[in-house]
Amino acid sequence: MPRVQGDLVFIGDVHLDRDDPALEDFLRFLRALTGSASRIVLAGDLFQLWLGARELELPHQRAVVEALRRARGAGVVVRYLEGNRDFHLGKVYAGDAVDDSGDSGIVEEWGDRRLFAIHGDLANPEDRQYRAWRKVARSRALWLVFQALPRRRRLASALWLERRMRGSNPEFKRAFPEREVRAYAAGYLAQGHDAVVLGHFHLERDLAAVPPSPPGRIFVLPEWKESRRHLRVGSDGRMEFVDSLPG
């Protein structure tokens, strides 16, 4: 497979929806990355809901999946961090649209930097309602029950879940839990990582760790659809948020 020379790119929650006017811009962005990036990390919640079931793919999802395949075919490594709107993707899309997919975080070695990235939906221990729901929703037993349903029932259930998630837990979306995020990131910095990259919170933040945390930086990715921005790591190791599209 041909390899390209380029940057390491982290993209935050895109949240593409059916008939989304942002779809064409995102596809254009992916095409541009194929020429400028060697590695892409999608930090979860690429769609409003993404299930590991090809037969439930909607047209906007198929368009993005095909664009990711083309990027990989051009030699770009594409890694996926499963978020709170992603379910059981790895067995279906790893090795196809993405190189790998999971929800336990990944490490990227870049020059002399060691970067740890994870979606971040478990960063706030006070969000107990979400944590309880996540445990049930990601259980193997529930997934087996879901897969046993007829396709029409599965699709209807998925659309219902998507609508429900849009309005869930509003009190935990109003303010950025900086103290909790710093404490969460400190655990990974203590493992020898130089920086921690998180999605989930839809806000652009570049934070320097402060004692008692080990030294390092904490990057929180903005929601791509609203900001049209991403985190780019150059060949010199410089990490900065930049605009994704010209103009």
Notable characteristics:
Purple Acid Phosphatase, chain A, domain 2, alpha/beta, 247 residues, five-stranded mixed sheet
How would you describe this protein?
The chain has 247 residues and is an alpha/beta fold. It has a single domain (7-243), classed as 4-Layer Sandwich (Purple Acid Phosphatase, chain A, domain 2), CATH 3.60.21. It has 8 helices and 13 strands. The strands form 3 sheets. The chain has a 6-stranded mixed sheet with strand order 6-4-2-1-12-13. A 5-stranded mixed sheet has the order 7-8-9-11-10, with helices on one face. A hairpin with a 2-residue loop joins strand 7 and strand 8. Helix 1 (23-36) packs parallel to helix 2. The longest helix has 16 residues, at 151-166. The radius of gyration is 18 Å and the shape is globular. The two termini are 33 Å apart. The mean pLDDT is 91.
